[in-house]
Amino acid sequence: MRVLVTGHQGYLGSIMVPVLRSYGHEVIGLDSGLFADCILGPAPQDPPAIRLDLRDITASHLTGFDAVIHLAALSNDPLGALEPRITYEINHQASVRLARCAKAAGVRRFLYASTCSVYGAAGEEAVDESAPLRPLTPYAESKVRVEDDVAAIADPGFSPVFLRNATAFGFSPRLRADIVLNNLVGYAVLTGEVRVLSDGTPWRPLVHARDIAEAFARCLVAPVDAIHCHAFNIGTETNNLTVADIAGAVVDVVPGSELVITGESGPDPRSYRVDFSAARDRLGYEAKWTVPEGAAELYEKYTAFSLKMEDFHERFTRLSHLKELRETGILDESMRFVNAIA
Ligand SMILES: NC(=O)c1ccc[n+]([C@@H]2O[C@H](COP(=O)([O-])OP(=O)(O)OC[C@H]3O[C@@H](n4cnc5c(N)ncnc54)[C@H](O)[C@@H]3O)[C@@H](O)[C@H]2O)c1
């Protein structure tokens, strides 16, 4: 298939592109390049790409594709809180525009990177895809709005599917240190402490970035009836863990590290467990990587590529990196590059 991947220069995109290529798909990227140089270790082999702000997409950019995989977004809660208006502009309005343009250009499948955080504070029961959506942040709210608005334009020639990914972990050449496991392992490697700011009790469903890539690859080729307008939780029940469990896995792989639970961040309402059976039953999909395996992989890569404290806190932390690009005048207030994208 000929596939457009938006956000191909992100944390997940940099892992997903080679996975899709390994299945024989022709991949073209689309990204504005916010994190193009935020690389640890050897640089990834980027595919041919359109360098464009998603907000400027037109149907002509989308002609000739069989499918769009839409990853591009301001992608996490702190970023969304920094600038809710821009988060809605990019994550919601531009995403819906992309879907409309794709439909107008004759693209038949639209695979959307949603998130399990659409469930918000879900209580003790594991949530499946029919659970009420109670987003707690502008980021999660933007994802709910896209699911609603894009589902509304589905028709027999245009099949959207919504992959509600658990929180990712694992090494990507475009590293992110602001997601829980990557953060805990990095801090432990750099300081010897596995530092948990909450009281350790919130539940977090986790999934390896490569397993997310495999889920998208599966949805590209699944029978259309299996995916048309469906939402799927992407992850595995094995990785429904508390923050304290996750921290324990880190202590086990980082030699000499010590667990410190500070509790300084106060109660965290973003606690939920997720049921992943729909993807298993309808797509035959099963996420494979466990958290201890992911922690071991991160430890190995961080030490092999000599992770540095400054990069950990700046280039590999989305909020700090984008603030820096704004403060140095590279991005304007609306997160657009000041000098036109080449
Ligand atoms: N990483 C996770 O834990 C996780 C979990 C659930 C869902 N998701 C979703 O998966 C997708 C990818 O996540 P990620 O972790 O790779 O994010 P990321 O922040 O690493 O990458 C996002 C990419 O989108 C691009 N982008 C942002 N705004 C753009 C714009 N206006 N125009 C063009 N490109 C733009 C950035 O340059 C970047 O390359 C996101 O939609 C995210 O919400 C991620």
TrEMBL record:
Residues 3-235 form the NAD-dependent epimerase/dehydratase domain. Keywords: Isomerase. Gene3D superfamilies: NAD(P)-binding Rossmann-like Domain. Signal peptide: none annotated. SUPFAM superfamilies: NAD(P)-binding Rossmann-fold domains (SSF51735). GO terms for molecular function: UDP-glucose 4-epimerase activity. This is UDP-glucose 4-epimerase.
